[in-house]
Amino acid sequence: MAAKNLATCIFCKIIKGEIPSFKLIETELSFSFLDIGPLSKGHALVIPKHHAEKLHQLPDEYLADALPIAKKIAIAQGAENYNVLQNNGRLAHQEVDHVHFHIIPKPSAEEGLV
Ligand code: 5GP
Ligand code: ZN
């Protein structure tokens, strides 16, 4: 099951460049890019370069690498108002079964969503 998911996982394909993405920051252990369906302008995702479906399955070194990238993206976006979200399981609204952190700017009403 895990091997099958690894072969078909869209985020693994994004890491390998098999699916195009708007890349933001890449390290040895992590990859970040803009969300294809942004909830607001600049909505970004940070993913580990290790296929784990849920947070509790992710080795700590990948977790430790990913969060500072979320921080860098938030700073680059102005670090005013934003959410960092990470969903696990269908009931928790996870759609892509590869651990990912959302960085979602929360613009003011004047700035608009997208
Ligand atoms: P989830 O609901 O699993 O926490 O969020 C998955 C996110 O991945 C969604 O916000 C969705 O827009 C994004 N997403 C799904 N497929 C692609 C893709 O092929 N490219 C990019 N850039 N984002 C994707
Ligand atoms: Zn994957």
TrEMBL record:
Identification of the protein by name: HIT-like domain-containing protein
Record-annotated active site: H100
Domain HIT: 10-113
Phylogenetic classification of the source organism: Eukaryota, Fungi, Dikarya, Basidiomycota, Agaricomycotina
GO biological process, one term: nucleotide metabolic process
Motif position, Histidine triad motif: 98-102
Organism for this UniProt entry: Mycena albidolilacea
Transmembrane regions: none
Top-rank lineage group of the source organism: Eukaryota
GO MF, one annotated term: catalytic activity
